[in-house]
Amino acid sequence: PRPPCLVLHEKICPVTGFGRAALLLVAAVGFLVSPLVGAGEMTSLYTPLGLGACAVPPPEIARSYEGRDLAVEECPAPAPYRLFVVSSDARSWIDLRRNDLDWSSEQRVVYGRDVLALGHFPNVSTSGVAEWRLDEKGIPLALIVRLRLVDPGGDATQGATISRLLVVGLSADSFCDLGLAKSNEEARQLADMAADCTAAVAR
User: Fold this and answer.
1) Residue 171's pLDDT is what?
2) Which bin fits 39, alpha (ψ -120 to 50), beta or left (φ > 0)?
3) Which of 157, 133, 137, 161 is nearest to 149 (CA)?
C-alpha cells in the first residue's frame, strides 16, 4: 500500500506523494515509513515529535492556546490528522485534530489517576517520535506516544524517570483511549485493537 502523506500546518501533500516541506523535515531527522507488508498486516509510520521537528502553528490556532497561557507546536502527522504538542509549566501533552474534530489528552495525561499514581510532571515533549499504526491500506488506526514522568521514589538529582506509552485509537468520528503500556509490544497490541474502538475519549 502507498504510505500516507504527512501534514505540516496547511500544506497537505497530494495522494501521489509527500508534501515537500514535510518530506524534507522527516528526512532531515531520520524518520520514515515502515516497509510494505503483506495483506491484512498492520505497520507503523514514525514521525518526529520533539525539539526542532515541530513548528509554531498558524496564528488562529496559536491564539486559542495563548489565551489559556499554553505553549503549542504542530508536528508532522499523516493526513487528515494534525498533531500538536501542548505545554504548561513542567507538563506537556498531545492534542489531535481530524477535520472538524478536536481532541486533547490533557485530562488523561495531567489529571488521570493512573498517571498521577506513577509520578510527577508528565511530559510527551521529550518522546522524540510518535508511532502511528496503519492498516493494510495505510490508514492510521492508532497513535502511540511515550509519556515520561519524574519518579517520586528516585534520585531527582540523577533525573530518575518513569515511562509509559499512551495509546490512542483513531476513527473517522472519534478518538479512543486504549490505555497505557509498559513496552512497545504491549502498546502495539493495544493499538491494533483500535478497529474495535467506538467510544470517544472525553475532551
Assistant:
1) 86
2) beta
3) 161
Q: Which residue has the cell 488506526?
A: 141
CA 78 remoteness from chain centre: 11
What are the φ/ψ torsions at residue 74 (nearest 5 degrees)?
-100, 135
CB hemisphere CA count around 144 (13 angstroms): 26
Pairing of strands 6-8, 77-78: antiparallel
Q: pLDDT tens digits for 161-201?
A: 888 999 999 988 889 889 899 999 999 999 887 666 654 44
Under the banding of pLDDT at 50, 70 and 90, the label for residue 8 is very low
- Mean pLDDT confidence for 138-156: 86
Could you tell me the three cell numbers for 68? Answer: 489559556
